[in-house]
Amino acid sequence: MSQYEQAPDPALTFDDVSVCRGDRVIWSDSTLRVDAGRFVALIGPNGSGKTTLLQVILGLVPSSTGTVQVYGERPGAHNDQIGYVPQNYDTSANEAIRAWDAVLLGLTGRRWGFARIGADERRRIDEALRWVEATDFADRRLSELSGGQRQRIALASALVAHPKMLILDEPLASLDLRNQHEIVVLLARLKQDLGVTIIVVAHDLNPLLAVLDSVIYLLDGHAHHAVIDQVVDSELLTHMYGTPIKVAHTLQGDLYMRGM
Fold first, then answer.
1. Which residues contact 257 (CB under 8 A, 6 or more apart)?
2. How confident is the model over 137-196, as pLDDT tens digits?
3. Does some domain include residue 235?
4. 30 in a structural domain
5. Residue 140 lies in a domain
6. How far apart are CA 106 and CA 101, in angstroms?
């Protein structure tokens, strides 16, 4: 970065943060900064506190010590600027409704009762569907869609309110390899075109390695943040998951990880 360029504003900052549930410390003494417009994975073994970290960002669980800021404000202050796609979107969505109506709920889901939507809201729904390349099946019921198509509708529902941050909980978990690749390419394009910050909870980093900027990882009771090259390390990953993991290169020079 030259002396004339400004550093990006932070999207997320933790300053000496600890989180407890009852008498149990989930993680502690965690300081990190994620700049706006970055593509970040959140990883850690089961039970390490990944879901708790998301809940802290959304203001659903308070920090026990330290300070958390999301775009310079307290967590939860501007959740309308965060698009959230839960891991169980397939099971929580009403499969009888049209895909178009599922995206509509991304705008109206917080309202009480029914209200007629206007031309601007219709335009935003159609726009979100175009962003995720889902226009062709917008009139079909969710029950008729494939896993990859449903994931696109989930993304459109999160994007329709024009958020500054996308949080996705295991968006690739139930997809085959082709659909995993297509969703990763789509997310990278959304980050580039919309400037949105993306945080993805991931069990397997391999499909994401080509597009990630950095990783938040939960290790030894602390939340850490580092660029991707520092995290894709055999010793670190083996220690984190408690099983041997080898980092290797494909013939094309790309990184990948595999168990030993």
1. 205, 206, 232, 237, 245, 246, 247, 248
2. 999 999 899 999 999 999 999 999 999 999 999 999 889 999 999 999 999 999 999 999
3. yes
4. yes
5. no
6. 9
